[in-house]
Amino acid sequence: MAEETGEPQQVLFEVTDRVATITLNRPESLNAINGAVGRGVMEGLQRIEDDDEIRAGILTGAGRAFCAGADLKERARSGSGGGAAGSSVSGFLNQVPGNAFATFRSTKPLIAAINGHCLAGGLELALICDVRIATPASSFGLPEIVRGFFPGAGGPQKLPRAIPQALAMEMLLTGDPIDAEAALRGGLISRVVPGDELMATAGQIAGRIAGHAPLAVKAVKELAYAAQDIPLDRAMRFGSALRWIIGETDDAKEGPRAFAEKRDPEYRGE
Predict the structure, then answer these.
(1) Active site residue: 124, 181, 254, 266, which one?
(2) Looking at 94-103, 155-164, 203-212, 225-234, which range is the least confident one?
(3) Is 49 designated active site?
(4) Is 124 a catalytic residue?
(5) Strands 178-179, 139-141: parallel, antiparallel or unpaired by DSSP?
């Protein structure tokens, strides 16, 4: 069943077999993020997080772009240059950093299915995902520096963590995009697939993940990201604790039992 989040037709939300798909649906504007799209994406992400029946999510865009970034026409009409909220110390300290999705932390796996342009806020949206796949026609970039400002939704902070620093800095400082092959070589994406296979491939990956024990999936995602920010010995200690916790769940017992009984496991998230 297809449903909409946000204002009509701006963002679409659909759930199939425990996998939710959020589709940015402004193809005539290359899915540029206006107020309605921003709200719709956040509503969709929060719904994925809150619904226990959903075990993985896919983000994609309609038409020939994943997302070309912020709607600059809307920004120009508002007179905003993308700077900090308020003109005082208190205004700066009280603001929420960047876009809402920049600080959103999903405990469930997210896959970005990238078709065409993935630029500026679109790339920052893709960077909140755990797995990114793309078509040969896709391009990736953070061109804000060309417009007189710089990315405000996590690009400068997250891109150097996702790919080698030299490549990240070239993208940030020049504003020049890279193509899908360069993104694959740099590790920004994990696969390049034909355009007509993009959503099927994303669905296969998401479905594979959704078939695993959901608590174990959440725990390994948390561990993988936490390990980036702490010393290895502490990361190993944290991993041991999480593994013991997951070992106490019913699902951890169901997996070996199903293997011994030569049947598919039935994971319940318990």
Answers:
(1) 124
(2) 94-103
(3) no
(4) yes
(5) antiparallel
